[in-house]
Amino acid sequence: MIEYLRDWFWTYIWKPLPDMPFGAWMETFIRWARDAWAAGFDAVDAGLEFLYANLADGLLWLPSGVMVLLFAAAAWAAKGWKLGVGIGLGMFVVAWTPYWEETMQTLAMVLVAAVIAIVLAIPLGIAAAESRAFSAVARPVLDFMQTLPAFVYLIPVVMLFSVGVVPGIIATIIFAMPPGVRLTELGLRQVDGEVVEAGQAFGASPARILVRIKLPLALPTIMAGLNQVIMLALSMVVIAGLVGGGGLGAVISGSLGRLDIAAGFNAGLAVVLLAILLDRVTQGLSDRTPVARAAELAR
Amino acid sequence: MPAIEVESLYKVFGKGARSAVSQLEAGVPRDELTARNVTAAVIDHTWSIEPGEIFVVMGLSGSGKSTLIRMLNGLIKPTSGTIRIDGVELGSLSARELRRLRREKISMVFQHFALLPHRTVVENVAFGLEIKGLAKAERLERAREAVELVGLSGHEDKLPAQLSGGMRQRVGLARALAADTEILLMDEAFSALDPLIRQEMQDQLLDLQGALGKTIVFITHDLNEAMRIGDRIAICDGQVKQLGTAEEILMHPADEYVAEFTADVDRTRVLTAEAVMEPCGTRDTSAFTTVEPDVPVNELYEPVLNSRSPLLVVDDNADPLGVVTPRSIIKSLAPERESAGAEQEAQPA
């Protein structure tokens, strides 16, 4: 009986099916897009390259010793002197490795990608919070962006933008954006309905309720999203290094090829210390939002 | 012109709301609709509120009172029926006009205060004025006045989290008063507060009302509270079960539903000499101690016990209205409907 079913299934369902075409469709679409929107891709390429190059040059403009102090000062300002000292020590270790320049390049890449991801994510998160339909459509797309292995979308991105730093940034934006959208939506949906109702009852327009009530109240959650975006962006650097992204990613993929444990460990340590810097500073900033400070006072 | 006028107002939630209204009009009971996942929150309300009146809507949870108050400022659209604010029908207004009406005519106080946690007391109070578009200096000035009015001077620059519940609700009240609207909607405004604080807030509201003369719609599930502050009370369970003054409801409950509520009320605070007096008959009343008709019963105990004769209730012109005896007081305190009926017959025409 089971064999009969299997044969039936094979003869009438599997065999007549053509080869799975989704991949081929995607390829056709990407090739078509490359030609049809060439000018657009060139403009994006040039724009991102410009942002990245200038930011990286800016970070490397001052000697590493001065930059270490500046990072320590930023951490102090964001949280307190303890964090300032810790970050100062961490960045000193980074400057001690031979990879200061690569670290600053990686930081520039992460910052460009994270800022663009956040700029895109917040309006999308607002739209998802305001419209159930939009949210229902956005959710699977975000899942797709976040879980599709990064190498897979690196292929078309490299095809569209050629190798270099830009495909790395694009891949990073795609991978890092979803938590920004999700946490913006979550933060806005969690705003106390009665407070929103108070805004309506006093005759505030929807735009005003968004800007004056919902966004300030959602800000701590949105900041947590920003933190997530930055951390995910940093986790993409190695992969970006594979496609000629430069920075620490290039060092790490290079040492993988040469089985150079020392170089790989040094570069890896720089990634970790950079991650701690970015995480603690953004967390310090989110503790300083007015709502978070009010909650702190209440305790 | 009434400040608020409501005519055959219905609000039904769920599928087929419109047809549910015609069924309700035809007399289908509310429970039958509930079984079909259609919730009739407000059924056939027709009443009006005069300027300066405190109108209390009293009902248990699920009686549609929160829905009702949100229809009065257009946050919820009625399924059918009309609402007029100062003669203007809400249904005829665009979203923009409706927002303007809320800014200028109606403000609201919420059960859980609904304050912005990151703003100071005075900034919260100024919220309505900010939406009205007042310049910062002026709105803070007026907000400070409102803060003083509710007795929170000295706390202007604190955050809501640093205040107690009663103080937070004073901020909510000040915010509504600062908006300087004629109509004040209060949605279970004191229900989240401790009993003592609640009484304090009720007294303060009555004091403020004496000075300001707003039109207040007050929602509560507590009949004692309703009787304390309401000029008139509407007891609701979907439809209005009874609408009248505290005394009318206590003395002549319209049905079993209302009578059950009134059983728990402290009648001695609500009933007055006028409500419990008996006819003078042919007695010679010239030597009797006199009382005014609006003295509550709980202030009559001592004079009744200390006087050898009944108390004589007299009006402003010192004309006798009736007499109060210990017996008439005790009789009025018995909650049975039968006695309420007997009382009615015994009262002078």
TrEMBL record, chain A:
Q: Which residues does UniProt assign to the signal peptide?
A: none
> Into which family does the record put it?
Belongs to the binding-protein-dependent transport system permease family.
Q: What is its main location?
A: membrane
**What's the protein name?**
ABC transporter permease subunit
The UniProt entry lists membrane topology as: Multi-pass membrane protein
Keyword check for Cell membrane: yes
Could you tell me which species this protein originates from?
Answer: Glycomyces albidus
Which superkingdom? Bacteria
Single GO cellular component term: ATP-binding cassette (ABC) transporter complex
**Which residue ranges traverse the bilayer?**
58-76, 83-100, 106-129, 150-177, 229-252, 259-278
**An individual GO BP term:** glycine betaine transport
GO MF annotations in UniProt:
amine transmembrane transporter activity; carnitine transmembrane transporter activity
